[in-house]
Write a structure and sequence with these properties.
The complex is a heterodimer of chains A (246) and B (258). With 246 residues, chain A is of the alpha/beta class. Chain A contains 9 helices and 10 strands. Chain B has one domain: MetI-like fold (Orthogonal Bundle). The termini of chain B are far apart. The chains are: A alpha/beta (246), B mainly alpha (258).
Chain lengths: 246, 258
């Protein structure tokens, strides 16, 4: 069994509004999974449930054989193993680029400063931001911020990377630089779970595409199936809508 | 008013005024700094998420209630009254004979702390939710999140409000003359009581207050600008192009002696 994450009967409600309904879903090691669907379909919530930024209402989330919901004592260690990249970047405003990539390593993983800086530099180089180590977040463009955010997550050497619409807040000409970094990462064998509206990217990079609609997984399969020969009517309709937009 | 009297008072009594000004500055500075840390602590405690087991939640509720009472009482009563109650009250009711300076420092600090607690709470609430989430997503617990990510930003954001408190403290410590602390106003009163030149004496006193507050405001403005840094970043600015990021780090490390 090489499932890194296994989700069983997961549900989540905000008050009376049920956002996730009985989700069954798993991610294998080294797999790149893209989650697509219209806004409000629950895809971001699903991602946020996995590192417990949202508390699920029911069901199981099993990470490497351990149910993280019945055994919540080690939330912090778990989160350190799941790298998260946000739509709004969320770089720490009180640190420069290097500080952003170092603080988690030093405080959570208890690495020495030298070790942490070396690691940070390695990943800042990967995302092409090594020249900006002493820049402040507000001095960077959106694309640059997002690349730093990716480096920050990678410097923790996570097991899985979670991306929550990483390019949705970017100007169109900056989307490319971020997607390029993500494609490189995917090619390196990182396990990735990506909520995205970039259909072309999903088609090219994903091993598997999950289409969510109204809180359930409506269809999942290899990108060829989802994009060329969708089995479900609502998948077809969603894709038509997005194509018309593009 | 006569100019001669102004000059005479200033030249004759300046050592007293300087001592008074020093006392005022001491009270205001210590009060603001201690109050600032009280405020940070209270603000941080009051924003701890109310979750976890029943005992934990009840405990948090009690602590929050106590802190709320503290804030309301000290914001809701005049400092001059607090001074009377604490200085004379503690002597009579508790048999605790505080030294005047200790009492004064205590009163200003606790009073400022109550105001700062609310300022800090507002500062924490105004920090973008994404900052909390990013810190949590990286594996930080509540205290790490507060200490390394949120509070440093709060401190920067509330600096103008803190400066404001400082200026208020410079002026309002004058009420501590009721417990005979020899701050600036008290010295003015002593001088005027001797020469009956109330107008000229207090004109000099107000000039000194103005100089103190104006200087403090300028210094704080300067610190704010320093903290913010430049608007734009130029990679490798003022550095030789042949340097790699490693070189820069190594140089910095050697300089501070890691």
């Amino acid at each position: 069994m090489n499932n890194v994450i296994e989700i069983k009967h997961l549900s989540k409600s905000f008050g009376a509004h049920q956002v996730l309904k009985d989700i069954d879903f798993s991610v294998r090691a080294g797999e790149v999974v893209c989650i697509i669907g219209s806004s409000g379909s629950g895809k971001s919530t699903l991602l946020r449930c996995i590192n417990l930024l949202e508390k699920p209402s029911g069901g199981q989330i099993i990470y490497r054989g351990q149910d993280i919901l019945t055994n919540p004592s080690n939330v912090y260690a778990l989160r350190a193993k799941l790298g998260m990249v946000f739509q709004q970047f969320n770089l720490f405003n009180n640190y420069d680029v290097l500080g952003n990539c170092v603080v988690g390593q030093m405080k959570v993983l208890r690495r020495s400063r030298e070790e942490a800086e070396e690691m940070a530099l390695k990943y800042l180089r990967l995302v092409g931001m090594e020249q900006f180590i002493h820049a402040r977040p507000r001095q960077l463009s959106g694309g640059q911020k997002q690349r730093v955010a990716i480096a920050r997550a990678l410097a923790m050497e996570p097991d899985v990377m979670l991306f929550d619409e990483p390019t949705s807040a970017l100007d169109p000409e900056m989307v490319g630089e971020v997607l390029k970094v993500m494609a490189t990462l995917a090619a390196s064998g990182m396990t990735m779970l990506i909520v995205t509206h970039e259909m072309a990217f999903a088609r090219e990079v994903a091993h598997r595409v999950v289409f969510m609609d109204q809180g359930v997984i409506a269809e999942e399969g290899p990108p060829e199936q989802i994009f060329i020969n969708p089995q479900q009517e609502r998948t077809r309709q969603f894709l038509q809508r997005t194509q018309r937009r593009q | 008013m006569s100019i001669e009297w102004l000059v005479r008072i200033a030249t004759e009594y300046w050592p007293m005024f300087v001592r008074g000004a020093r006392m005022t500055l001491l009270l205001a500075t210590v009060g603001t700094i201690v109050g600032f840390f009280i405020g940070l602590l209270v603000g941080a405690v009051r924003t701890v998420p109310r979750e976890g087991g029943l005992i934990r939640r009840v405990l948090l509720w009690i602590v929050d209630a106590v802190l709320a009472v503290y804030v309301e009482v000290f914001r809701g009563t005049p400092m001059i009254v607090q001074a009377m109650v604490i200085y004379y009250g503690s002597a009579i009711a508790l048999g605790l004979h505080m030294d005047k300076l200790t009492a004064a420092l205590f009163i200003v600090s606790v009073n400022t702390g109550a105001y700062m607690a609310e300022i800090v709470r507002g500062g924490i609430v105004s920090i973008d939710k994404g900052q909390f989430e990013a810190a949590q997503a990286i594996g930080m617990n509540h205290w790490q999140t507060m200490l390394y990510v949120i509070l440093p930003q709060v401190v920067r954001n509330i600096l103008p409000a803190t400066g404001n408190e400082f200026v208020i403290n410079i002026k309002d410590t004058s009420v501590l003359n009721v417990i005979s602390v020899t701050e600036l106003f008290f010295q003015g009163k002593s001088v005027a009581g001797g020469n009956f030149r109330y107008f000229e004496t207090f004109l000099v006193i107000s000039a000194i207050y103005l100089i103190l507050t104006f200087t403090v405001t300028r210094i704080l403005r300067y610190i704010e600008r320093k903290l913010d840094g430049p608007e734009h970043f130029i990679p490798y600015a003022n550095q030789m192009q042949v340097q790699t990021p490693e070189d820069i780090l190594r140089k910095k490390r050697n300089a501070v002696g890691y």
